Amino acid sequence: MKQLDQETDFMLYSPEERLYQEKQLESFIQNTQENGILLGAIVQNQIVGVISVQTSNLTKIKHTGYLVIGVQKEFQKKGIASKLFEEIFAWARNESIHRLELTVITANFPAIQLYEKLGFYKEGLKKDAIYMKGRYYDEFYMAKLLEKR
User: What secondary structure, in 3-state letters, does 44-99 show?
Assistant: First the structure.
């Protein structure tokens, strides 16, 4: 994850902010296992991409999952993100997740193009949602509704 943070401005964390201690990392993974899923793409014993979905136990929103994805620059445009999404879509249907949602900086054109290709659509705009490098950036809310098979 740290390498992703260093390679792109489009991840939420700055490299110096992701300072997980072993216990914090264990806690994060445990929480994700209980309320979602965390998958990694591994090439030559190296994690080159991750995708996670967080869900809720609250009855009114337990059908919704919030998604975060990142793939290292060197491994982008090789189908890794699409494969990670395929796995997430299958998991979500199995878990009765009907709605997947994410946010994306409006300047991240390759990601937006991929999300739209995969069936996500823009639902709204968060003005000045991210502050980095001395300026504000907007984010799109995007979602995909999953049909049961």
Answer: CCEEEEEEEEECCCCCCCCCEEEEEEEECHHHCCCCHHHHHHHHHHHHHHHCCCCE
